[in-house]
Amino acid sequence: MHIGLGGNLYGPAGTGKTESVKALGGLMGRQVLVFNCDEGIDVWSLSRILIGLIKCGAWGCFDEFNRLEEVTLSAISLQIQRLQHALQSGSKTVTVLEKKVMINI
């Protein structure tokens, strides 16, 4: 966590992946917001969610991330990568949707 990276839990349904993330976030003093992803979610919607998470310092848990359309998955992955680079470099801001967003850590 201290190097600015996230995680990707993998395993069968019903094994407690989401609950584990929520418990870990709670132990680290972070609010964890869970979002269910499906084919209908677009880049703009996910980007707005990401902006909200960045501004309030909460963790995001994206259930069924693999169900996103390829173009959406690619675009949001790039934005997450930008956030990771900003965290690693100690930057106080990151650009999402062409907006500079203050990082609340």
Characterize the structure shown.
This protein has 105 residues and is an alpha+beta fold. Helices cover 43% and strands 17% of the residues. The strands form 2 sheets. It has a two-stranded parallel ribbon with strand order 1-2. Helix 2 packs parallel to helix 3. It starts with 16 loop residues before the first helix and ends with a strand.
Layout of helices and strands, plus pairs?
Layout: H1 17-27, E1 32-36, H2 43-56, E2 59-63, H3 70-89, E3 93-96, E4 99-102
Parallel strand pairs: 1-2
Antiparallel strand pairs: 3-4
Helix pairs in contact: 2-3
Nutshell version of this structure?
By secondary structure, this protein is of the alpha+beta class. The chain has helices at 17-27, 43-56, 70-89; strands spanning 32-36, 59-63, 93-96, 99-102. It comes from Ranatra chinensis.
Low-confidence runs: none
User: First CA to last CA: what distance?
Assistant: 11 Å
What is the CA-based Rg, rounded?
A: 14 Å
Biggest β-sheet, characterized? Answer: 2 strands, parallel
How are the strands ordered across the major sheet?
1-2
- What does the average pLDDT come to? 94
Class based on secondary structure composition and strand pairing: alpha+beta
- How many helix segments? 3
Strand content: 15-25%
Helix-strand sequence: HEHEHEE
Number of strands: 4
The coarse silhouette is globular
Portion of residues within helices: 40-55%
Keywords:
single chain; 105 residues; alpha+beta; two-stranded parallel sheet; two-stranded antiparallel sheet; 4 strands; globular
